[in-house]
Amino acid sequence: MMNTLKKHFVYQADYQHWANDMLFAAVDALDEGARQSNQGISFGSIHKTVNHILIVTRNWMSRLKQEPVTTTAEEHFIADWKDLKNALRQEYRAAQRWLEAQPESFFDDQIEYRENHNTSHMIWARDALTQIMTHAAHQRGQVAAIAVRLGAPEPEMGFLTYKQEMEKS
User: Fold this and answer.
1) Mean per-residue pLDDT, 51-66
2) Model pTM score
3) I need a surface site. Which of 26, 47, 103, 136 has the fewest CB within 10 A?
4) Helix (H/G/I), strand (E/B), else coil: 123
């Protein structure tokens, strides 16, 4: 079976959903105070960092869809942990469905996006998608390290573990 960019990114969206669930299972072992406490990472707390993953994913998906980007962390902060987890789950499932609906040619297209509503840039769709996926993995790694330091179990979020689990089911 030929692997295409489309299949790759559809699998990546599914992997992100799975890896987020592995992270959530670990972080759920912490109390609200631990999730909200400032831990000295880029966005302060575990909660704010997960919210940041959601906002960045939404913004890049909007760019890929050629829709206006209007989401900022301040405007779309989800204060409830359960609501935040569900929003991120829904975001990656929606991304996966949207990617499945795109023609193969989309992944070789360039898109225009604006930074700070001023500067215009061009980026390959595949590079924007790589940014979404690697950004989430990077931030998830920070959250996992902090969560473990705070007493949560270490989440197994590796891509090969995901693949092995998917092959079993």
Assistant:
1) 94
2) 0.92
3) 103
4) strand
